[in-house]
Amino acid sequence: MSIKKNYKIKPDKLEKFISTVYEKCKLSKKHASIVAKGLVRADVRGVWSHGVVRAPIYCERILKKVANPKPKIKIKKIQRNILHVDGNNGLGFITSSIAMNECVKVAKKYGVGIAGIYNSNHFGMAANYLEIATKNNCIAWVFTASSPALPPHGAMAAHFGTAPFAFGSPTGNKNKPFILDMACSAVARGKLKFAAKSGKKIPFGLALDKFGKPTNDGAKAFEGIMLPFGGMKGAGISWMMDIIGGIFTGANHSGNVKNQFGNNFSGPANVGHFMICLKADLFQNKNQFLKKMEYGIKKVKKLKLAKNFKEILHPGEPEYRKEQMIKKQGVILSEDIVKDLNELGDSVGVKSPF
Questions:
Q1: Burial 308-326 (b: 16+ CB within 10 A, else e)
Q2: With b meaning 16 or more CB within 10 Å and e meaning fewer, what string describes 143-181?
Q3: For residues 274 and 303, is the Cβ–Cβ distance under 8 A?
C-alpha cells in the first residue's frame, strides 16, 4: 500500500489561493476574502473538518446556482439593537460575518446586540464569529439551523442538524479567548464526509447506517444517521438549535434545511443563524471582568489532575496552541485535499500553489 503525502503551506498563501478561486466564482473581492479567511482560519485552529477541504463544496453550490455569489444583504432593525438579516442566499461566511460585526457595533452602544439571519447558507466554523466578538471585548453566543443528520430522542430517522452550540468570551489574553464550539453529534459530520471519500474507517458508536445498524463505514454513516452526544441531551440541544436558528429567524426548519454536502441542488438551503452579543463590561468595568476571567481559569488549572492528564486547558486553548504551531510550520494538508484543491483551481482557471 502506498504512503500518501502531506503538504505544508503558509496560511496567507493558502488564503490568497482560496480567495482568488472565489473571485472566479463571481464573488466580490471583499466577500471572497471573507470566505477564504473563514476556511483557512479553521485549518489554522486545527478544525480541519471545516477548513479548505470544504472549499469545493461551496463553489459547487454557487456554480450550480443554488447559492448567490453576489448577495444584496438587507438588515432590518426590529429595535435599535435587534437586527433581522436577509442573507439573499449568500454564503453563510458572508452573512454571518456582516451580522456579527453589526451585533458588535450595537452591543458597544447599547450593551446588547442580537441578530437573526435567514436566507443564508452553511457558515463553516462557528468560532469565526465568536472571535469577532471576543476581539471587541464582547461575550457572544452563536446558533444555527442545519440539514437533517440526527434523530430526535426515540426516533430512528435523521431529522435535526448537528448544529454547534457555540459560546465565546474574552480573557486576560486577547489572543486566547474562551471559545466553546461543539456539535450536537458525537463527531463533526464533516469528518464522516471526508472519511467516506478517503475510504477510512470510523469508530463504532458515532453513527448508524440508513437501516439503523451500527457502522464503521464513513460513507454509510454519512448517508445514514449520526448519533448525538450524551443521548437525549445532545438530541434535545439539536432540537433547540432548530427552533432558534430555524423557526425563530424565519429560515427553513423541521428537517427542511437542504443538505449542502450531499447532492441536493434542488434550490436554496435557506439556513438560519442566531447571534447574541454582550459587552463584557456591561455590569462591571473591563479590567474587573478580565481579572475575574483569569482568576477563574487559573483556579481551574490548579485543581488535582485526573488520571492520565498532565494539565487542564480551557475551551479554545487547544486551538490556540495549534495556531501557534501552524504559524511556524504552515497548514498541513493531506494528498486527497490537495488533489481536490488542484482540481478546483483548474476548474475555474486559478493556478494552484501546490
A1: eeeeeebbbbebbeebeeb
A2: bbbbbbbbbbeeeeebbbbbbbbbbbbbbeeeebbbbbb
A3: no
DSSP for residue 320 = H
> Is there a contact between 305 and 312 (Cβ–Cβ < 8 Å)?
yes
- In the numeric block, which cell numbers belong to residue 260? 449542502
Confidence (pTM): 0.93
In the predicted model, is pLDDT for residue 156 greater than 90? no
Q: What 3-state DSSP class applies to 276?
A: strand
- Grid cell locating 101: 460585526
Average pLDDT, the chain: 93
Cβ neighbours of residue 339 under 8 Å, at least 6 residues apart?
none
Q: Which helix (H) or strand (E) holds 133?
A: helix 127-134
CA dihedral over 187, 188, 190, 194, signed as positive or negative: negative
Q: What three-state secondary structure class fits 78?
A: strand
Query: How many helices (H) and strands (E) are present in the chain, helices listed first?
Result: 11, 11
Taking CA 274 as the corner, what is the angle to CA 167 and CA 294, rounded to the nearest 5 degrees? Answer: 20
- Residues 35, 27: contact at Cβ < 8 Å? yes
Give the mean model confidence (pLDDT) for residues 181-203: 76
CA distance 120 to 300: 39
For the cut 90, the answer to whether the pLDDT of residue 303 exceeds it is yes
